[in-house]
Structures are given as structure tokens and as C-alpha cells.
Amino acid sequence: MFKRILITVGRQTGSGGKRIANALGERLGIAVYDNELLIKAAEKSGLSEDFFKKSDERRNFLNLGSLFGAPRYGDFGRNVLNESELFRIQSETIREIATQGSAIFVGRASDYVLRDLNSLDIFISAPIANRIDAVALREGISKEQAEELIRKKDRNRKDYYDLITMGDNWGVASHYDLCVDSSILGIDGTADFIVSFGKAAGRI
Prior knowledge:
Blueprint: E1 6-11, H1 17-28, E2 32-33, H2 35-45, H3 49-55, H4 83-100, E3 103-106, H5 110-113, E4 120-125, H6 128-139, H7 143-165, E5 178-181, H8 182-200
Helix pairs in contact: 1-8, 2-3, 2-4, 6-7
């Protein structure tokens, strides 16, 4: 009998969360959605990907007061879109993908969006020194620049997530099924550990 597997991966910048998600996808034969969500959301709305890239995991683009009362997409025209509607379109896209079969979602408060669908919710962290080294190498920048970039992106992710979930929840262990320090086992070891945990929990 087919078993739908839904995994959400929250992550600190530079912790290897996307790489771990990809490793999980390879091991389980499941599609991974990160930036692909922005493309699909843009296709769904008929609007440019730029709308979604500019708002991606940033709190200042959202206004939850109008989240559930905003007009539908066509009412905004081709170049203007209410910020809260961006989140709604992206959330609908996540749920549509999830209802069609197994999937792994990276970030974008996907664990909250799928909270009623029994997803396996993971949060990936790592010591700041490790993350600075990883981001500096990946981006070809100094360690000072890497630290500044990390703190900015993590602040954006936290503000976005906490606003969506209406609480101080980003990275808080009690809000996830499993929190893992990726520096201990590495990318592949962490992915293997998550698979073992998911199977033991009956989610995989």
C-alpha cells in the first residue's frame, strides 16, 4: 500500500539544511522543493518569480491582518500583489504538492503549513563557527562578511516564521519532531540518522 512521506526541513544558514534535504530525497526517492516552490507558486499565480524571490522568508513583506481576507490574484493586476497574498499562494502550492504524494520541503514555514498532514518536521543547526566557514567558502567571501550574511538571513527566517506561526517558534526544539546539529555526523550521516528516526517514528 502506498505510503505518503512528507518531510519539512527548517535550517540555520550555513548548516547544510538544503544539502541534507537533497540527501534525504536521494535516499527515499522523493522530490525536494526549495526554490522550486517559488517557480511553482509563480506559475500558479501567473506572476513573475521575482515577486516570490523578493518576499521569500522575509517578515516585512507580510501583513497577516489581511492574510485570509485579501482578494484573489487577478484583482491585483500583473505588477501589484498584496504581500500576504504571496504567502497564501506559496502555502497553497505547498499543500497541493503534499496532497499529490511524497515530498520534502525546505523552509518557508512548511511544517506549519502542513501541520495537519502528519509531516516529519526537522530542524538543522550547527555551531556558528562551522556555519561561517561553510558560507565563506560557498560564497567566496570573508569570514566577517559570512557572519553578517548568516545573521541577516537567520533573522529574516526567524521573523518570517515567528510571524506566520504567531509565536517565538523558529528553531525551538518543542516545535519540531527532531532537531539535529549537522556538524556532528556531517551531511550524509545526518541524512541517514533522520531516515532511521523517521522509520522508528512511523513517518517513513
